[in-house]
Amino acid sequence: MDRLRMGLVGAGPWATTVHAAAIEAHPVAELAGVWARRPEAAAAVAEGTSARVHTSFDDLVADVDAVAFAVPPAVQGELAPRAVAAGKHVVLEKPLAADLATAERLAQAVTDAGVVSAVVLTLRFDAEVRAWVDSLPAGPAGPDTVGVGRWFSGALLGGPFAGSAWRAEHGALLDVGPHVIDLLDAALGPVTGVDWANRADALWTFGMTHTGGARSTVSMSLRVAIDPTEFEIGMFGGTGRHVLTSRPDDATVPYSTLLDEFVADVAAGRTDGPCSAARGLHLQRITEQVAAAAG
Predict the structure, then answer these.
(1) What does the alpha-carbon distance between residue 190 and residue 141 come to, in Å, rounded to a whole number?
(2) pTM here?
(3) Nearest CA to 42 among 77, 8, 71, 68?
(4) What distance in Å separates the CA atoms of residue 39 and residue 15, rounded to the nearest whole number?
(5) Dist. CA 254–CA 260, nearest whole Å
(6) What is the pLDDT of residues 62-81, one digit of tens each?
(7) Distance between the two ends of the chain, CA-based, in angstroms?
(8) Cα–Cα distances in Å, from 204 out to 28, 166, 172, 295?
(9) What's domain 4-120+251-276's superfamily in CATH?
(10) What are the boundaries of the signal sequence (predicted)?
(11) Which of 227, 197, 221 is nearest to 290 (CA)?
């Protein structure tokens, strides 16, 4: 197929090291343009690539086939519906928006426009994680099964993401929470409710019920002085013992797989991918329940 011209919105470290790097290296996707609210930051992202720096968001949208967003949730919730309304396919970060109502409007706009969407759930595009999910017993787990999710890192103690205002405000819940919830949801069956939740400073803990009766517990913090990251998704009980402890070191690799499938979906007109905006909305409904339960 012809090259898929993609525009990138955002100029932070994730935009530069993951989105821009992977799109620029992709054999079919083309990094055609970059826009950020600070033109000098957009120029820094575009330097050394084939991308044009755009002077406005609308100018970028008019020049591309698809738009990838690497911006805070509030900004994505504001801008992504405009790209969708213009008929552009979208690569979205999680959470979809700063609040559930805006996320619902964005997901509905994607559906109404009939465009392809993909949420950057990088773990779901990792080969080893996919092999683990595929190895699990079919069907929702029953009440004789429990799940465990853990993610502890020092990401907000220092490094490129320590200065992120939205991450600092919400901690692990909105940053890595969607990844953990997504994998437990895939492993045990769809989450049907949040039983309890607690936030003690930077530590989030909560429990969930799944459609077949299984229950899971999650513990997460991005302010633990530990390196490397401590990560585990586990499923124990009547279906046996299934544990995942690996996660990709280089996020551009699973992001490249996301692009492979995104490009193929655009070519085929498939809008119901497993990590579409609808999936992002499902996960955001759960994180909103967690936040409400934690008070």
Answers:
(1) 10
(2) 0.96
(3) 8
(4) 14
(5) 10
(6) 999 999 999 999 999 999 99
(7) 50
(8) 40, 16, 7, 12
(9) NAD(P)-binding Rossmann-like Domain (3.40.50.720)
(10) none
(11) 197
